[in-house]
Amino acid sequence: MNWNILLQQILNGISLGGVYALMAVGFGLIFNVLKFSNFSHGGVVTLSAYIGFFLSQHLLPSFLVTFLLTAVAGGLAAVTIERLVFRPIRRKGYPVSMLIVNSITVAMLVQQFFAVTLGSDYYTYPVFIKETALHLGNLTVSKIYLLMLGISAVVLGGLSYVIRKTKIGIAIRAVSSDISTPSLMGVNVDFVISVAFFFSGVLGGITGYLLGMAFTVDPFIGSMILKGIIASIIGGMGSILGGVIAGLLLGAAESLLIAEIGAALTPIVIYGAIIVLLLIRPQGIAGKIAEVKA
Amino acid sequence: MFYLKVLEITSLYTILVLGVYLMTGLTGLFSLGQGAFVSIGAYTAAIAYMNFGAPFPLALALAVIIGAILGFLVGIPTLRLRRDYFLLVTFCLSEMVRAALLYLSQLTGGALGMAGMPKRVGLPLILGSIVVITFITYSLKRSRFGRDCIAIRDDELAASMMGINVYAHKIKVFMISSAITAYGGALYAFNILFIEPNLFNWLESAKLIIITFVGGLNSIAGVIIASTIYYSFGEFFRFIDVWRDVLLAVVVVLVIIFRPGGLLQGLELLPSKLRAMRRGR
User: Fold this and answer.
1) pLDDT digit string (tens) for B7-52?
2) Phi and psi of B219, rounded to 5°?
3) Nearest by CB: A98 against B74, B91, B256
4) Residue A215 DSSP symbol
5) Engineering a disulfide at A169: which of A163, A264, B52, B73 sits with its beta carbon 3.0 to 4.6 angstroms away?
6) Where are chain B's structural domains?
7) Is the pLDDT score of A61 beyond 60?
8) Cβ atoms of residues B99 and A48 within 8 Å
9) Which B-chain residues 102-161 have CB contacts (< 8 A) with chain A?
10) Residue B198 in contact with residue B39, Cβ under 8 Å?
């Protein structure tokens, strides 16, 4: 394999890796705050992919407007799910396992709902960008992929700033490290959790839009969340930077492996590698280990 | 004939749910990879019988053994970590097994699946298995081991403080669970007579967990009832069959929020309890 092809594969992989990173961070944010695996994130991604499609196809074919609307819709969807499904459980003080079951159920609900109503068709977004490829020397970059990478970078950079510097970001971090104490300091924990879900949902909305734009929309697009979850594990659950690095690595590794050993064997190698990684270094790249606290 | 078929399918799935009950209901381990064990069991038995000419009982035994071994191998790295890792890795496992079954098309027939097994599993064997497995599960629940598992489910840290070897218990439970699930898969292969890699995806695994919760974590009877209702539902109400999973999801969310103990609230339907109920307690 010559250098050119290698570089080309890595470039393609990284662009897709940007979307994996978005998913990993959206998933990890809730994991950090409420300490459970939020599978309903996959549902938000699916829902947003459809919303993005209907907005851009039937309302107005403008990329920027529909993109922003979809992101907000994703955020609102996540907040609604939190209100309806997670909050009652949290209020009553049930164990975390109930949250997991409900999140799996919501993921199933969304997937099956769209499978029943719109599952018989594939939906394609309108073409926003006419010339699809960009040439850089010997390398070819698809403009959509470049856009995906750019958007992922901007969004994740913005989120990182918000989490680190703003008041609400500090509140989210405080609630992440201890869910009961901040309320004694006058932090409205329910509100902070809603905001965390909103951020996570916005990431999910953007993910859904980008995935829908790059591929086609079908009810099972939410299953791509598996890639985000893997990136989240590799990165060390809940670390933003770890998730980003892992997402990019996963994307690059995936496209290299597909080029080298074929698409059939790639998932076997990747999933096998995850199990080995957990055996050697369970804390992931970022080195944050999530333990059960008393 | 139709009702017989419905009963067969429902009972097959009930075996799978019972396998999950031990793990999720009793020990609080979530696995989204039980579908992988169903596939492993089904394919092991089918391949052993079809390609290597193993007699049927040996094929069944092989499926159980391979299932337990795979459970052991997956359990080692993941059960030491917190529960979410186990959940996520078993999720990966199910995708990995699916990809592997597609890839090894020489042996498994790839996407075309496997067919042509003789029908060796009828209703008596399935119902007999349910009785035996229910008995095993119930005995385990009542034993010291089972109580330890319940302690682990309710508070892992406290359980380990009381001297329970949490890791060893989890591995044992996961192995037993995987073995039962693989056994269910093997029965499936020789009853339905057609298997393919996409038969048991994560959604099927998720449903097994969800049904366990609807039935109630503390009630084997509740779990069996919930599973029977769910899996026979689609056969009797064909006109809304496609909405079945959506309906299930809504019901589950409501049950978990308003009736977290499950349908029977942890009640076991034992002869003594029933008699007491008839006498008005």
Assistant:
1) 888 899 999 999 999 888 888 888 888 899 999 999 999 999 988 8
2) -130, 105
3) B256
4) S
5) A163
6) 2-202
7) yes
8) no
9) 102-103, 154, 156-157
10) no
Q: What's the one-letter identity of residue A251? A: G
- Counting every residue written for chain B, the total comes to 281
User: Where exactly are the structural domains of chain A?
Assistant: 3-280
| CATH classification code of A3-280 | 1.10.3470
Report d(CA A91, CA A184) in Å as an integer: 16
Cβ of A116 and B243 within 8 Å? Answer: yes
Q: Which residue of B has its CA nearest to A274?
A: B89
- Own/partner contacts of A63-68, CB < 8 Å, gap of 24 or more, are A63/A128, A66/A209, A67/A206, A67/A209
Least confident of A184-188, A283-287, B15-19, B57-61: A283-287
Residues 6+ apart with CB under 8 A from B141: B26, B150, B220
Residue-wise pLDDT tens digits, A228-249: 888 888 887 767 888 888 888 8
- pLDDT tens per residue across span A3-52: 777 888 888 888 888 888 999 889 888 988 888 888 899 999 999 999 99
Angle between helices A96-118 and B83-103 (to 10 degrees): 40
Q: Is the pLDDT of residue B276 over 70?
A: no
Residue pair A78/A201 in contact by the 8 Å Cβ criterion: yes
Is B81 in the A-facing interface, judged by CB distances under 8 Å? Answer: yes
Distance from CA of B223 to the nearest CA of A (A): 15
- Closest CA relative to residue A111, chosen from A24, A40, A51: A40
Summarize the confidence of residues A72-85 as an average pLDDT.
Answer: 94
Residues of chain B with Cβ-Cβ distance to A275 below 8 Å are 74, 77-78, 89, 92-93
Closest to A226 (Cβ–Cβ): which among B87, B91, B100?
B91
Residues in A touching B249 (Cβ below 8 Å): 105-106, 108-109, 112
Confirm whether pTM is higher than 0.90.
Answer: no
- Give the Å distances, CA to CA, from A62 to A30, A46, A53, A55, A146: 31, 21, 12, 9, 18
